[in-house]
Amino acid sequence: FVHLKPTIMQLYSTLNNHTLREVRREVKTMSSFLSLEEKFKLLEKLTEILSPFDEATQFLSGSKYSILGFMTPMLEELACQLKHLTELNNKASLVRDMILNNLIERWEDL
């Protein structure tokens, strides 16, 4: 999970509108009721959701050439991968939906 920390921190910093703050508060409240096993399962699902973003970040940050042409296809692929993640629990689905809605809101053509 350590290699995902920069990606998670960047994502967290962008999720700051009113609705997302409410969801964060709800997740914090729910996490106090989760068992350790449930927390690890949730972390596993969150890693599954966020891994494509880590891969995209690594690809774009390692490029020595202009990356603007990669942005739209990469964002479309990220949105597609999020849409096809179906084996998630309620909390992970909530996070997936937030990220997907945020992507669609920011990049209307997806």
Q: Topology of this structure?
A:
Elements: H1 5-14, H2 18-31, H3 36-61, H4 68-83, H5 90-106
Helix pairs in contact: 3-4, 3-5, 4-5
InterPro entries: RNaseH-like_sf (IPR012337)
Organism: Racocetra fulgida
Protein name: 8190_t:CDS:1
Can I get a quick summary?
This protein is mostly helical.
Helix content: over 70%
Oligomer, anyone? Answer: single chain
Instruction: Give the N-to-C terminal Cα separation.
Output: 28 Å
Largest sheet: none
The sequence of SSEs as H and E is HHHHH
Q: Tell me the Rg in angstroms.
A: 15 Å
Work out the helix count: 5
Q: Please count the beta strands (DSSP E, at least 2 residues each).
A: 0
Model regions low in confidence, pLDDT < 50 over at least 5 residues? none
The SS-based structural class is mainly alpha
* Mean of all residue-level pLDDT scores: 79
As for the number of domains, it is 1
The share of residues in extended strands comes to: under 5%
- The dominant shape is globular
